[in-house]
Amino acid sequence: MPMKVLDATLSNFDVVFDKFKAEAPNYKANLILFLADKDPATSLSWCPDCVRAEPVIYKKLEVSSDDITLLRAYVGDRPTWRNPQHPWRVNSTFKLRGVPTLVRWENDAIKGRLEDHEAHIEQKIDALVAAT
């Protein structure tokens, strides 16, 4: 089964996340990637760490033999993300501190995470995906 990708924004996250959770038992690894929105002027993320990490994450997940679902959750533009009251910063489950953040979701809980400074490291991505 190829990797399944779901995309969510702040406005539709709850609906997409419910679908993600409902389908989670069908996959060996369920991952959520919190990342910055693309800048409409450049089509690139406004976040340099996201620009660095995204291609590495996608490459590692695409070559994995495991059945993987990836929920890409876009945090918004830079001013939206910088707000200390951003919904995913204050959410008791996610407690985001930076982007990108890659989390492994298992049994309705976060079972591992890679934050902005480490989300591009291939060995750590492999370990997160392989975690049991």
UniProtKB/TrEMBL annotation:
<feature type="domain" description="Thioredoxin">
    <location>
        <begin position="18"/>
        <end position="128"/>
    </location>
</feature>
<dbReference type="Pfam" id="PF06110">
    <property type="entry name" value="TXD17-like_Trx"/>
</dbReference>
<dbReference type="GO" id="GO:0047134">
    <property type="term" value="F:protein-disulfide reductase [NAD(P)H] activity"/>
</dbReference>
<protein>
    <submittedName>
        <fullName>Thioredoxin-like protein Clot</fullName>
    </submittedName>
</protein>
<dbReference type="InterPro" id="IPR010357">
    <property type="entry name" value="TXNDC17_dom"/>
</dbReference>
<dbReference type="GO" id="GO:0005829">
    <property type="term" value="C:cytosol"/>
</dbReference>
<comment type="similarity">
    <text>Belongs to the thioredoxin family.</text>
</comment>
<dbReference type="InterPro" id="IPR036249">
    <property type="entry name" value="Thioredoxin-like_sf"/>
</dbReference>
<dbReference type="InterPro" id="IPR045108">
    <property type="entry name" value="TXNDC17-like"/>
</dbReference>
